[in-house]
User: What shape does this take?
Amino acid sequence: MRILFFGDIVGNPGILAVSDVLPSLLKRFEPDFVIANGENATRGFGINYRDALRLRECGIDAVTLGNHWRNRSSIDDFIEELDWLIRPCNVRNYDFGQGYATFDVDGVALTVVNVLGTAFMKEEVNSPIVSVQDVLNDVSEGIVIVDYHGESTSEKATFAYYFDGQVSAVLGTHTHVQTNDARVLPQGTAFISDVGMCGPYESVIGFEPQSVIRRLFYGDAPRMEISEEGKRCVNAIVLDVDPETYLATSIQTLYLIDGKERQDA
Ligand SMILES: [Fe+2]
Ligand SMILES: [Fe+2]
Assistant: This one.
């Protein structure tokens, strides 16, 4: 069973970057299931109904979220309808939507879980370990892919080792920077600290650099901009999981710039 997972999709350039490369990636890797993190899909903050549908229509089967999941309160109106849109499972005081979803992929159950980390994050959340253990108690069997949305690489690695052998993969998101540590852990869980992002390449984690400099250092920019111009990158993971043991057999990173493999500068 092959799964393709895209890191945080940032704004319209991110959606276009993914929709442009997806047909060739589907042909090249023939994934059985496609997941993307969409927490930044609408102008960098949250996701609206239209952009959620755009992601689905370009070939993504499930969309996970993160700390920006409710930047747009309109999500309350459609998160129940879109049963492939998955918010963090450990948020507090929110009853809409779902923190995980199970899909039937060629007769194999595939569960996608989204969970928020705690280190350097502002959100008040329940324990990621307890929350994901609760999900595993509900899900009797099958492939389990955890999108661990957090700032700290060590927290994500600690979580992955804790659940090594119990889930198929722990894929980090949120930092928007792809890490060089993708591997299958000793008990068969695939892991990467961060998948990276899809969006403008010449950017500060997706945002136009000058607007970020003005906002962060001088405080005179009303908001961080997303440039529609320039190169676009796509960061993703190709994951192979044994459909009988539900453990990972390989994990491979993808880093494309305008559709071509990145060459080290
Ligand atoms: Fe993000
Ligand atoms: Fe995030």
